[in-house]
């Protein structure tokens, strides 16, 4: 007679397959359940806190023995999630660009004088030639601001001229010269203010002397407005100065520094300033001088 082992839970006995009735086996049809130190079967309320006692708990159901070995439970294989996002591209570090040396010699830029400025200077020459520093009655007056001297002959050239090198400023009722700032509210008192600087008389207009002879005598250093913008790899620097003397313009630069020097206002003012650059090609640079009002 063949004997096999019963695979019902809680039984495990060896039985004769030809002698296997409906009440031959007592077993647990449920599943073992462990919770809070209790060990029990889900099919009945029998439990034990000791594992050995739990294994010998008598079955709660009667039936025939089971000769079939249960199949091993196959654990589901974990799904491999595929990330649709492409991997990041490696960052390629570029070597730093070496800054050109600031000790490189400055190269002078050749100015290009446009016709608009030439016309403006020509009109100033004509104006200076027509007046020649004389008043309507033929008397020659000093053209320095604040000086009221009259030319009487060669001896007048040896006199000391007291004048204002600045410009008149009218602001909130006050009138004063930018060079000394002695303020007054009366216009006549403003005109009578003695000059704050001594020098030589100017019997001809500075505009005439500067534009005709291309010479400037002791211009006053001052600042004028400038701005810049960058577009499509080009940098444009604009300096706004009235009546520039083209012969006085001196612009020099290398790749990292720019120096600008020019005389303007008909020879009365001097503008000088340096600018730091960042890798500019001076070989491709141009210098234009023109008038915005032709």
TrEMBL record:
Gene3D superfamilies the UniProt entry points to: 2.60.40.790, 4.10.1130.20
Pfam families (alphabetical): CHORD
Domain CHORD residue range list: 6-65, 142-201
Molecular function via GO: metal ion binding
InterPro entries: CHORD_dom, CHRD1, HSP20-like_chaperone
Keyword tags: Metal-binding, Repeat, Zinc
Biased composition annotated in UniProt, kind: Basic and acidic residues: 66-82
Stretch list, region Disordered: 65-110
Protein name: CHORD domain-containing protein
């Amino acid at each position: 007679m063949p004997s096999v082992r019963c695979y019902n839970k809680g039984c495990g006995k060896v039985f004769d397959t030809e002698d296997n009735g409906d009440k031959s086996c007592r077993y647990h049809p449920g599943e073992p359940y462990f919770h809070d130190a209790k060990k029990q079967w889900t099919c009945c309320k029998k439990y034990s806190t000791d594992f050995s006692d739990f294994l010998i708990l008598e079955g709660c159901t009667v039936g025939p023995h089971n000769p079939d070995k249960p199949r091993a439970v196959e654990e589901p294989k974990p799904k491999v999630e595929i990330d649709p996002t492409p991997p990041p591209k490696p960052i390629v570090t570029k070597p730093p660009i070496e800054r050109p040396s600031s000790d490189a010699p400055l190269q002078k830029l050749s100015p290009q004088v446009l016709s608009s400025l030439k016309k403006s200077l020509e009109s100033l020459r004509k104006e200076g030639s027509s007046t020649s520093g004389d008043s309507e009655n033929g008397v020659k007056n000093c053209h320095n601001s604040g000086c009221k001297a009259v030319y009487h002959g060669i001896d007048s050239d040896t006199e000391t001229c007291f004048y204002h090198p600045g410009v008149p400023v009218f602001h909130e009722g006050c009138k004063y010269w930018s060079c000394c700032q002695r303020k007054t509210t009366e216009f006549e008192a403003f005109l009578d203010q003695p000059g704050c600087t001594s020098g030589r008389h100017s019997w001809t207009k500075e505009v005439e002397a500067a534009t005709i002879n291309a010479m400037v005598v002791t211009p006053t250093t001052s600042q004028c407005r400038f701005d810049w913008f960058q577009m499509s790899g080009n940098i444009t620097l604009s300096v706004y100065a009235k009546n520039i003397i083209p012969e006085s313009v001196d612009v020099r630069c290398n790749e990292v520094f720019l120096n600008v020097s020019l005389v303007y206002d008909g020879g009365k003012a001097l503008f000088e300033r340096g600018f730091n650059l960042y890798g500019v090609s001076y070989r491709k640079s141009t210098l234009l001088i023109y008038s915005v009002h032709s």
